[in-house]
Design brief:
Largest sheet: 3 strands, antiparallel
Order of helices and strands: HHEEE
Low-confidence stretches: none
Mean pLDDT: 89
Structural class: alpha+beta
Number of helices: 2
Number of domains: 1
Distance between the termini: 90 Å
Helix content: 40-55%
CATH architecture: 2-Layer Sandwich
Radius of gyration: 23 Å
CATH class: Alpha Beta
């Protein structure tokens, strides 16, 4: 029995394995990127909404929506809890969606 051509088979198997690993790494990278984008957008939208909290819920959430739309993400929720703005953002990725929540409000002064 001859081993002629077996190196080609092993090379093809090695390339297929590398391509599969590359595909997994790219999908995981996409998911991590979506998580980071959703967290950043939630933080920025919460700060923007907190800046307009004095004008009411509609104005605050409209400002949060402007921020998330500018980042091509979805505003999943927006509410005011006292003077704090609580914002939820969704970002799509190859492995599903990433969800982030952020809270922002006025700074309370520390004691005397």
């Amino acid at each position: 029995m001859s081993d002629r051509g077996s190196a080609t088979v092993w090379s093809v198997l090695a390339m297929a394995t590398l391509m599969a690993v590359l595909g997994v790494v790219l999908h995981l990278g996409s998911a991590v990127n979506a998580r980071h984008r959703s967290e950043a957008a939630a933080d920025l939208a919460a700060v923007a909404a907190a800046g307009d909290a004095i004008e009411g819920l509609d104005a605050a959430c409209a400002k949060a929506a402007v921020v998330t739309e500018a980042m091509d993400l979805t505003l999943a929720g927006c509410r005011l809890d006292g003077w704090d703005a609580v914002v939820e953002v969704d970002a799509a990725s190859a492995l599903g969606s990433a969800h982030a929540r952020a809270r922002a409000g006025p700074v309370e002064p520390e004691g005397p």
